[in-house]
Structure formats: C-alpha cells, structure tokens
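Sample intake sheet
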Amino acid sequence: MNASAHRPAPQPDWLPALAAYLSARGLGDAASLQANPLAGGQSNPTFLLEDATGRRVLRKQPPGTLLPSAHAIDREYRVMSALADTAVPVPRMLHYCEDRGVIGTPFYLMSYAQGRVFMDPALPGLAPPERGALYAEAGRVLAALHAVVPGQVGLDGYGRAGDYYARQVARWTRQYHDTETGPIAAMDALIDWLPRHLPADDGQVCLVHGDYRIDNLVFDAAAPRAIALLDWELSTLGHPLADLAYHCMCWRIPPSLWRGIAGLDLQALGIPDEAGFVAAYCRARGIGAPANWDFYLAYSFFRIAAILQGVYARGRAGNAAGDDAREMGARVAPLAALGWQAASRETARQS
C-alpha cells in the first residue's frame, strides 16, 4: 500500500453510511468526509479518509465470495494493536467494525503514515549511501519483528506452533488448486517436491509478517527510518526464515518481471547483495546462516506464485482490489520457475 500517493476519485457509494457511522462515534466529520483509494495493495481495498478533523486510513475486505481465512483484516487490526509499544513501527489503530451493514464488509481505521514508499526495490533517485541505509533499516525492522515474544504482547495463540512449513505448503497448495486457471509445470513440480524436503522443526516460533517487502515499509520523509510496516493480513506465528527468504526473493527476480533487482549493479547502487543482507540479519538475531537456504527460497517462490494466482483469479471474477490484478497471472509461471530453480539447487546440494 502506497501511503504517500493517492488520486481524486469518484466517491464510493458507501460513503454516506460510513460518514454517519463515524460521526456518531466521534471518529470523523460527516459533512466534510471524503474517501480516495490509496495506490498499491492487491488484497484489501484501502482508502485515505480526509475531513475537517484530519486524515485516517480505512482498510476493508473486498466484495464478493472470499476464500476461507483470506482477507483477515481482523487479524491485521489485532497484530498492529499488539505491536504498538514495540520496536516494530506500526500505524496507530483507531477502530474496528465487523458490521457488514455499514459499508458492505468489515473494516478498520488506522492513523495515516505519511512518508516515502518505494515500490521499486532498486530505490531509483536516491544516492548509494541512502539506498544502503534503507536496506539496513529494512533488515533492522525484520530482526526486531522476529525478536518480539508473542505472549508478551498478547499474541499467544495468534497461530499454531510447530510444523509451520508443512502446514503452509498444504495451505497454499489448496488455495492454488482452488484458483487454478491452467496447468503450470513448475507449480506442479514444487507441489510434489516441497512436502518431501521439509526442514526438521528447529523449535523457532515467532511472529511473522507474511508479506515482508521493502514496499510494505513507509520511511520517514527525510531520513532512512521506517515509520510504519503495513499489510499484515498474512501475519501469523511461524518460522522467521520464511519472512527472510520472502524478502530476499527480490535479489532473484529480474526488474522486468516484478519488483526485483536481479542483474543490477548492486555495488554501484549501494544496495547490499543477498548474502550480505542475510548475514546482517543473522548477526542481529544472533543466529547462524541457514544451511538449506534454497529450500526457503523455493518455498517462498511457490507461495508468492500461489498468492498471485489467487489475485489473478479474483481479477477474472471482478472482485480484486488492484487494477492490475489480471496482469498478475502472467507472473505466476516465471516466479514458479524461479522456485523450481531453487528446489533443484537444494536437491543437488543434498545429493
């Protein structure tokens, strides 16, 4: 979600009902309320609310029939509320409404994090030292997130402990099959390979974001400091290397495919290479480098391919949040192919 760019748009038909609802609760001025969609975010429609009292952000479920457990905005609200007093930067949660009668779906309000959002991980327009500082900050926030003890912030039971990858592979396999629109050989191969190469459960359980990319961070307008981590819909209790590998996919993805930096002159840009980023994260957490790194990459590419397949299917059905949902379908097979490359490397390492 791009919290720094929005465009004027026709007002949604639910705006009068929302205005009355918020006004009755002292959360807004009904006479001056406007709602404009915020750019970015494929999953849950997000709007900047502006009125005489200021700015807030509204995030809601999309309309239409939804997959089970998808678009869990109640979980987003819960986890960001829990993280309010931690080292993880999050917006301030203002209100949650589960009544579908107001705007057609559940929704919540949060403070507006006004800052810089970089949709391109190459960070164009910045000097090399600032690029390096922003990547270092992204690593710091990720390590800080994984240092949070869920039970100490009221998130005990936020997810199941143990067998994380087995459960996740099964979940995304189901969701992929539920939204499948045609055969993709690399996805079929990963669906067969992943359950047979699951890492042993090492007991690590932490809060994972589930969609940790640099474009989900809002940075201070004048400094390489993160002021908000957004889009928590996929957060749960899980294994920290899932977040790390998911973030590191951008080093393997060509810019021509989607939000990647593969093949760029990283040294000239001032961006750390993948190994340097992983090493810095591991030092911050006091852990060693994972021996089976390619498994985590294979899993991450499989998962993002399954997610984008769902976005594409919602686009075909007419109930996706992003205007470019249909374009996501073209990215599923190439991303799955990158996952199969990682799986093949891991197979070779083990042989």
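Comment: The first strand starts at residue 34 and ends at 37. The first helix runs from residue 15 to 24.
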